[in-house]
Design brief:
By secondary structure, the protein is mainly alpha-helical. Helices cover about 65% and strands about 0% of the residues. It contains six helices and no strands.
Length: about 100
């Protein structure tokens, strides 16, 4: 994924990340699958599968990793302020996290 696809105009909240194509694309590339664009498929309501559940779990982990990382820095805006670096950090963390979901 081109890490330049930044979310600088978006709010740093869960609602954004459920819809965030960058987060879903990072997760999908990490797992080697395609990212669904339909919200119902992302949440495993429509066409659920083990692959999609793994993708959802990885997105969840990536989101919480990023927000915890910001809390350590003492600012809720760090994802937006440092989005390029944050995406690279989250992508690396996802490579580690995927071993928790895929065997």
């Amino acid at each position: 994924m081109n890490i330049e696809r930044l979310c600088v105009q978006e709010n740093d909240d869960l609602r954004h990340y459920i819809h965030c194509s960058s987060l879903w694309q990072l997760s999908a590339e990490t797992l080697g699958v395609s990212a669904p664009s339909d919200l119902r498929e992302r949440l495993c309501i429509l066409n659920p599968s083990v692959e999609r559940m793994q993708l959802l779990a990885l997105c969840f982990q990536g989101y919480h990793y990023a927000t915890a990382n910001c809390e350590e820095q003492g600012t809720s805006r760090c994802i937006v302020q440092n989005s390029h670096r944050m995406q690279a950090t989250v992508q690396q963390a996802m490579r580690t996290f995927k071993h928790n979901f895929c065997t």
